[in-house]
Amino acid sequence: MNKPTRILCLLLISAGFLSADTGARSSWQIMTERAQALMKETEVEIDNRLIQTYQGYAGVWTNITSTASIKRTCKEDMCDPVLFRLVNELNPSQNHIKKAGLYFVPFINKYLDRLKDSGIFRQKVTLKKGQYVWPVMGIRITSRVGNRWGKIHGGIDVAASRGSIVVGATDGTVMLIGDQGAYGHCVFVENHDGTVAWYAHLTDSYVKVGDKIVRGQIVGSSGNTGRSTGPHLHFEMRTQQGIILDPEHFFVLPFEEHLKHAQDFENETATRNKQAKVKPSN
Ligand SMILES: [Zn+2]
């Protein structure tokens, strides 16, 4: 369904629902408020290697070895050990990491400000409710939804070097994570609008089942797992009934424009500055 049709449907649904309910506000008022909510623009931040999002906190996913001290991991004025334990579901009295692996290091605001001062921040995009962001910066589109070698290709393929940051295209809840045969390592998300998104051929995932994610939040890193001829992200969207949708109908910008904005951002900031004091998580 295209955007105007979607908005019209929502308006009709609200009108139908509300005609039976004669509250203090007229159904026209409520309809108008709903339409305004859909049109309202918000600023969305896109995670990168140096600043990421988890459970509403800004921070960075980091590989931590076992027996590492939590106090030392949460270096002074970078992160709060109490919050670190909370976000990573560790025991409040725990002082050391018991199992090596990926942990989220949430930044305290002062540290975020310091990063900002040194030119490290996230790309911001202004979007209306329901508008999707491209899940990966990528290099080029190598395959679209449609017929490919006599078979239906159900998603869009974006070539991206292994380990590229993959972000949530829209808000949703993580349904499933794991290896899915030809699709490799996948993250499945039930989007806020009822559609289902597949992020496939990943190297790693940075969310867990049941997590609520927001647009621009890191969900994984791209790769070449499963049946894949080269490192790329396969992004697929379906209805709950399994009907394939074309993701390109949901993005605000065509890929080339998205790429240009993302590249301009990288060039303008110190995100890729090797001199940056903050270590990337992968
Ligand atoms: Zn594909």
Biggest sheet features: 8 strands, antiparallel
Question: Which stretches are poorly predicted, pLDDT < 50 over at least 5 residues?
Answer: 15-21, 278-282
Structural class: alpha+beta
Helical amount: 10-25%
Tally the beta strands.
Answer: 18
Bound molecules: zinc ion
> Judging by the overall fold, what is the CATH architecture of the domain at 132-252?
Distorted Sandwich
* H/I helix tally: 6
Task: Specify the CATH class of the domain at 132-252.
Answer: Mainly Beta
Radius of gyration: 21 Å
Q: Based on Cα principal axes, name the global outline.
A: globular
Provide key terms for this protein.
Glucose Permease (Domain IIA), eight-stranded antiparallel β-sheet, disordered C terminus, 282 residues, binds zinc ion, alpha+beta, three-stranded antiparallel β-sheet, 30% strand
Task: Write a structural description.
The chain is of the alpha+beta class and 282 residues long. The chain has a domain of 121 residues: Glucose Permease (Domain IIA). It has 6 helices and 18 strands. A hairpin with a 4-residue loop joins β12 and β13. α1 runs antiparallel to α2. The protein is globular and about 55 Å long. The two termini are 38 Å apart. The C terminus is likely disordered. The site of zinc ion (ZN) has 5 residues, from β9.
Write the layout of secondary structure elements.
Elements: H1 3-19, H2 27-39, E1 41-46, E2 52-54, E3 57-64, H3 70-73, H4 81-87, E4 101-106, H5 109-117, E5 123-128, E6 140-143, E7 146-148, E8 151-153, E9 155-159, E10 165-167, E11 172-179, E12 185-191, E13 196-202, E14 204-205, E15 212-213, E16 218-221, E17 232-238, E18 244-245, H6 255-268
Antiparallel strand pairs: 1-5, 2-3, 3-4, 6-9, 7-8, 9-17, 10-16, 11-12, 11-15, 12-13, 13-17, 14-16, 17-18
Helix pairs in contact: 1-2
Zinc ion binds next to strand 9.
